[in-house]
Specification:
Layout: H1 2-18, E1 26-35, E2 40-45, H2 48-51, E3 62-65, E4 70-78, H3 88-95, E5 100-109, E6 112-121, E7 126-129, E8 137-148
Parallel strand pairs: 1-8
Antiparallel strand pairs: 1-4, 2-3, 2-5, 5-6, 7-8
């Protein structure tokens, strides 16, 4: 009994102290949005479920508030648990398999919010791995997106 307790305790200690959260990474959206409208209040971008092939409704997307006509975007998202650790290159290749990325624009019309989904071709985006961070961080560079007049 004593040996079983020592075995279980050492197993618990090794997994709790030496283990790591495998399969979790960060996704960082960067870019500049050029807007010709004053009623845009937020921009919603896909989470990692989208990049792994699961489409979700616009209400479930990550959002960033907009308060200027010319907005620099920097949004960092934590991934869902993807199982075993994967390389950044493999994830980027998987991301590039998608044809388009949705961006949801939320405009305020009186007391109501109006959603508009714009599809950005994947070929217009840049993908890279952020060096120097403790954990894997993938960067999706939106570059400069000019939405023009949304009317």
């Amino acid at each position: 009994m004593h040996r079983l307790f020592i075995l279980l305790w050492s197993l618990f200690w090794s997994t709790s102290c030496l283990g790591q959260a495998c399969g979790v990474y960060y996704l960082s959206y960067m870019g500049t949005l050029e807007l010709d409208t004053a009623d845009l209040i937020e921009v919603r971008l896909p989470d990692t479920f989208f990049w792994h092939g699961i489409d979700r409704p616009a209400k479930k997307m990550n959002s960033v508030s907009i308060n200027q006509k010319f907005q620099t975007l920097n949004l960092k998202v934590t991934s869902h648990l993807v199982g075993a650790p994967v390389s950044g290159e493999k994830l980027i290749n998987q991301y590039k398999e998608r044809k388009r990325m949705p961006i949801v624009l939320v405009r305020k019309r009186g007391k109501r919010k109006k959603l508009r989904v714009i599809q950005i071709p994947i070929s217009d985006l840049g993908f890279s791995i952020l060096d120097g961070s403790e954990s894997l961080t993938l960067v999706v560079d939106l570059k400069t997106i000019n939405f023009g007049d949304l009317e």
